[in-house]
Amino acid sequence: RVDGPVQIAFESWSGPTRGQRARDPVEAPDKSIWWTGQWADVVTRLEPETGAMREYDLPSGARAHTVTAAEDGMIWYTGNGNGTMGRLNPETGEITIYPMPDPAAGDPHSAIVAPDGRVYFTVQRGNRVGRVDPVSGTVDLVTMPVPGARPYGIKQANDGTIWVAANGSNHLFSLDPESLAVSSHEIPHTDSHIRRLDIAPDGTIWYVNSGRGRIGQFDPKSGAVREWPSPSGSRSHPYAIAWFDNALWYNESGMRPDMLVRFDPVAESFQSWPIPSGDIHAGILRHMRVTRDGSALLIHQSATNTVMRVRVHPDS
Hints:
About 0% of the residues lie in helices and about 50% in strands. It has strands at about 10-15, 20-25, 35, 40-45, 55, 65-70, 75-80, 85-90, 95-100, 110-115, 120-125, 130, 140-145, 150-155, 160-165, 170-175, 180-185, 195-200, 205-210, 215-220, 225-230, 240-245, 245-250, 260-265, 270-275, 290, 295-300, 305-310. It is mainly beta and about 325 residues long. A four-stranded antiparallel β-sheet has the order 1-28-27-26, with no helix packed on it. It has a four-stranded antiparallel β-sheet with strand order 2-3-4-5, with no helix packed on it.
């Protein structure tokens, strides 16, 4: 643990179905929190103020890897186990299925919803990035220019550019949101593997270099790359990442318990906390996202079926 000036508080909830591998919580426009129980083929809706929950069954074998919430209230999930994208209507429970047009794209992974309602997603083993247009029902796919790149995390910049992390290669990719034309950006060292990324207000790309136990910053304008060793060292395996509270937050998934880490890019200093896991030697935090008003960070511990909300300066 690295001490520092920031105080945080954890709130936690556990889903009704045990062994579901709860993961990837996200806040919807109505302030409800959603997550996927990947192994149980469910997604869960939580009212954080009351603790009320409802589980929605997904098609058997969907194995939803992530969920994300659209502005219209629809909940999208990636059918990592059955090669689909799915859209859940929370009011009716109706699910609309969007099959992959190429059988090689059998494992949709992570997804984001763009402001125009289109959904962009990665296909890790299939080495593709896709786009769903919910109006036309069209699914478009593009193959990454680096073999075995294993596209993983995905974000959209303010200028519309889609940015993708490469879990199997030392690259970042940027895509034109209309043409899906791909540009490659090489990160130094062939043992670099980038699971996830986020975008700071200044447009720079921050990423976790899981392969080398580092965090990094890529400047799309200059092409400059900077990296910093994570406090727990080369085997710390940074995983989830988010820009939050004017700093970079991520976890060291190679540690037990997982360490939640804050990096101040101005002071270039770290602070870290163990993520609560009770009396169980467990983890892992695989994705983190910020609430819509920017006041809290949503995280999870998939091994203990727990989702959490982290607040900074809880007594202020």
